[in-house]
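agent: user wants the full assembly modeled, not chains individually. Plan: 1) parse entity lines 2) check alphabet per entity 3) run joint structure prediction 4) return tokens. Steps 1-2 passed, three entities, 989 residues total. Proceeding.
--- entities ---
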Amino acid sequence: MIRTFFCTSAIALGLGSVASAQVVLDVVAWKGNEAEPAGLPELIEKFEAANPDIDVELTYVARKDVDKVIPPRLQSGNPPDVTMVDSSLVDLWGGAGFLADLGIDSDWYARMQPSVSKVMTRDGGIMVFPLEVIGMGNFVNMDLLAKVGIEKAPVTIDELKAACTALAAEGISPMIFAGGFPAMLYVGANGIDLNGVSPAEYGSGDLKFVDDDNFNGSLDSVRDLVASDCFDPKLQAGLDPWATAPEEFRAGRVAILPQGAWNIGSFSSIDGLNYQFAPMPSRFTDVGLALDLVGPGWAIPKDAANKDAAQKWIEFFADEENLNVFLEAEGAYSPFVGGKSTMPDLAATYTQARADGSLILWPFSTLEFPKPLQSEWEDSITGFLLDIDQPNEKTLQRWDDIIEDNM
Amino acid sequence: MSSTLDTATPVAQAAPDWDLIRRRTKSVLVHGFILTLVAIMLLPLFYMVMMSFKTATEISQNPLGLPSSLYWGNYMAALSSMGYVRSVLNSLGITVSVILVVVLTGAMAAYPLARLNNRISRVIVMVMALGLATPNFVTITPIYVIFRDLGLLDSYLGIVLAFAALKLPLAVFFYTGFIAAIPIELEEAARLDNCNNWQIFWHVIRPLLAPVTATLSLFVMLMVWNDFTYPLLLLTDKDKLTVMIAVYKFVGNTGIDPTKLFPAAVLGSLPLLILFAVFQRRIMSGATAGAVK
Amino acid sequence: MRARNSLYIFTIPALVVLILFFVHPIILTFNMSLTSFKGIGEATDVGWSNYERIFTRERYLREVWVTLWFTVIVVTSLTITGLFFAAMLHRLPLIRNFARAALYTPAMMSFVVVGYVWQFLYSPINGGINVALRDLGLGAWEQNWLGDPSLALYSVAFAQIWMFTGFTCAIFLAGFAGIPEEIGEAGRLEGASSWQRFRYLELPLLGPSITVSVVLTTIGTLKTFELPFILTKGGPDGATRMLSIEIIDNLFGQYKFGFASALSIIMLIIVLAVAFLQNRVLRNRENVT
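--- prediction returned ---
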């Protein structure tokens, strides 16, 4: 009896250990679902084909919910094997010691663009494998511009003002400038001199916004746009930048929309919408300023159960061919040096501006501007639009107050 | 109008019965008025269903109009990636279980609180109120830790317990209010017949709570069905996921795509609507009968 | 009174649950509120400075005011609309079930969807409401529903009322169901009009349901977060920023768990205070009639 028992358990254990060679890789990401596939479904298939002993389980958790749902798992020692992170999560979770160092001696680290690796490296280690750098600029409806005789997307402020005046005269709504995001892009592009001081100096409180020529000039420039009939500031204040504004652009009811390149997928799905993605007109450059958002990446929690499989997952994405599937679906640029661009032709002006060096990394994504400042920008710029003739310092002082609070 | 009472002579009946006509017209008008109000209330939802049948291009060009044809493509796409049947069954099972637990425990707890008015019961009521007043996110991490320690993660039992616990204060509050309205004579009569506490509760009090139970069940059903934070937190097995988690897959991070989300949302809420319609008719008819007695 | 005291056993399951799921987390939250915890990792003690900050900054006091005022508007309206529909439907048995289900459907949809639909309806340029007004020739009444600071709170309140009228109506209908038929009959025989029957016969007997409805909707509205957040995110420039939005923003936007916990405790105290006050007033009113 006992012998049979031991025999059976030995066999079972033996079988069990063969069966346990099948690893289940638990991946959490805020992409890869129906709404934002980002090429992940097909990449997962490819990965599983190349690694038959690994089964990938991708759980979609929206970025807002990641804050709620993942920290309990990290803290109780039961984290996913791979989790998507962005710079603020790296700061928070990495700073608390929950992410593993992926090693700066790896092959892909050396290939990172210097600006990106500078942002992502901390304390001599790197805890995130960056997946993308995504552009933010102006979406321009070329058909509407053609109606007023303009053939080229405006990339300087004068071109922009001229386009606005012409469009408004024809009764076409020229531009969306919602305070919650589009306005921020313009204000940032005209307040940060790409050849001047680094945004980090404002973020650390060394420089004050209130006395700053650049940001004062930026707000003045907004008034110029209003004077050229680009938009009605009071109306723009209540406009939702994430669902309503892109919908207006898709419907062809507005000519210019500052937004992020992640909209390219949904804009291209509309038949008959002839548009381009152009860099943001800025006072500091003649070819428009490319605003690059440092996007999310993969991280391996320190307590992950399947670290080897997780490493393989990261190596898989370090392969340019695989990464390009992701980048093309996302409408983003590679964070690594070299490699061909997967961006469509309609983004040619933006890609060109990048190539010409007319580009800054969006300071909220690099944490040069602290996170609390982002919601303050949203609120205060909306407030500015509601009362556009108020003195600049009312708005700028709020930014300085937040920076001070944050220290 | 006493002439209407005189139905003996056929001649009198030939004259139109204005009183009846007036009452009928008034009835029709009132019914119509309320129905119109209800229809107006439903306009936004009607709009949502309309949008789920349009293509993306149609939505952009003609947001308010009726769809040119019922485009089922969105629904096909949604169904094929939702694991619909399984997730609906999960949601149903979890919701019904939670309702049963909450109704029973809540009514039981409310009974002494409604009848006895001393310091102990007042303290308990205060704790109950605390439960109602707590903001939602306060409980997330503690529940996760407790469940992990009890081994209840990723289990049906765990999620049912979690939901039941969260809705319990609501049930107690509901029942305390309504039990207080039940005349004490009924209980005293039963006590004279030598019934113990449990018998009184089960045979006298419980049936009279039918309308309240029905209403409470509908509320709990709604809250549990639509919640996706707790299933997201506590369930990881793909086969255990609820239908709202499946709908959640269609939500993006920046803005939403109505052609993807709305069909999924309609599909997600459809079982709830059907449950509601069926449930309501049965329980409500039973409820009114019980109350009259 | 042994039978009476043994009644307490009935409350034990509920009590256990409450202590585990509510009392314990609240104690944890209070402890967190005395620190500058970031949600993960170590927590450093900062004493009462979080609370100090709340009481000395205009921003947070304004949010308390916005929250309270919003709640007053929503609860009052919900009670009126709920009573109206319930009273009418009580007299119209033919359409009662259908109408109740119909009124309930807004609450059955998920917040994300409802928020999106209302955002579209309220959109200033080509939103459903403004376009409809234009088509009806009432173009002069077009407004910037969510973007005008003086209007935004009421627009959000309207959407909230739309969503939850079914709730209060259902509660009141349950209350009506508990009113014996004979009372209505007696009233009709006495020649009382519909309104008189409602005012003098039914309303007093609805005491318990009014209490339940008012207290529940108050607590729910004080805590409400999803719909206002999706519609305005607290904008424009803080005109609709309620305590709940501020808490979530600090919790998950800025990772200031310690401060958010302090705000949560303050919110908890406000909710409890309001609930108790209401309960006392309403229960007394119930007993008097």
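agent: reporting back. The radius of gyration of chain A is 24 Å. The domain at 24-130+296-334 of chain A is CATH 3.40.190.10 (D-Maltodextrin-Binding Protein; domain 2).
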